[in-house]
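Problem 12. The chain below contains 290 residues. Write out its predicted structure in token notation.
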Amino acid sequence: MNIIIFSENGASELSGQINLDDETQLREFNLCELENFKQYNPSLLILDFDKDKVREFCAVRKLECSVLVPVDEIPQNLTIRALSYDFIKTPINKTELNVRINALLKTYSTKKELVKTAICDELTGLYNRKYLHHRLDAEISRAKRYGTSLACVLLDIDYFKIVNDMYGYDWGDILLKKIAQMLSALVRKEDVLTRYGDEEFIIVLPETTEQQALIFAERFRSDVEKMEFIPANEEERHPITISGGIASFPCMEEVDEDANTLIRYAEHALYNAKQSGKNKIVEFSKMNLG
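Solution.
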């Protein structure tokens, strides 16, 4: 948790009254740094400066954190768009200050967890299908606007049902989490990594050509082929392979391509990889569609 205080001179009297635990950090800045507040990743913003400036700051921003504003009188027309917010009247009572801070931090933590639950897969921690479609449409719009490339990689664990049947679903879950961890280590910050189905994963790669996506997918396919997966009570590794389909945007002329279109292209390519022997990556653009 990060508590960030902004004040006129960067030395608010509130800082000495806040009780901190081992999981909470407190930092102070003056108003010259206010425009850079996002880079400090605040859980709670304390805006300890002139209320007209607070009103001006809050009027044009939607804040992804909690906000606390010390005031002489509770304002009637101060709009704050944040995960949660509160006011505390001056002079400050230390006990009341910490009660309000703890409540705001708890609200922040709870709402962030709810957001994470809504967009993430419970087992792997990766994004889920709902979030994928939202982000993929946004990335396609961005690619159209700036004339950049976009690639979509769909991966599927080969013979995953055999792992579940031979060793049980717990070991299937272990394998899924291992694959998710390996993919997480490879993707960039701007990529969108999703658990798409039971044993399927989709990676959206902005500003990436189909050829670059193929290099990424082939590297991962090779890593999976060499991975050590040794279920309990087994003396040797169980061989694991993965197949993949790649689609890129733009792909086909005179087609209004959206997230569903691009995913469908990748599914066709994946199906081709499965039908032609598995443990391979197929590019949709290289398929014979005649």
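Discussion. Residues 94-119 form the longest helix (26 residues). Students who got a different answer should revisit the alignment rule from Section 12.3.
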